[in-house]
Design brief:
mainly alpha, globular
Length: 85
């Protein structure tokens, strides 16, 4: 923890009320949100430590493209997306 009381890394972030993470009003690059996304993305076990570090860096850099809930998605009138999962 830094002297200003702010965490210095994602690992220092403590779990929080996820209802506050999953809103369109939250900063998309807030550390608790990034940590939640990183905890919920699974990577291959065949990646080296360096590759895992690079994946984590990419996810952190582009965390704004991920959504944690439908509450973060803005509806677009007339658009329908079908996902075959």
């Amino acid at each position: 923890m830094s002297t200003a009381g702010k965490p210095e890394s994602i690992e220092e972030i403590q779990p929080m009320d996820t209802g506050k993470i999953f809103t369109r009003l939250m900063d998309l690059f807030a550390l608790p949100r990034i940590k939640y996304i990183l905890q919920n993305i699974k990577t291959g076990s065949n990646l080296s430590e360096e590759e895992k570090r690079k994946v984590t860096e990419l996810i952190t850099e582009f965390t704004d493209i991920f959504t944690c809930s439908l509450g973060e998605v803005l509806p677009i009138p007339g658009v329908q997306i079908d996902l075959n999962i």
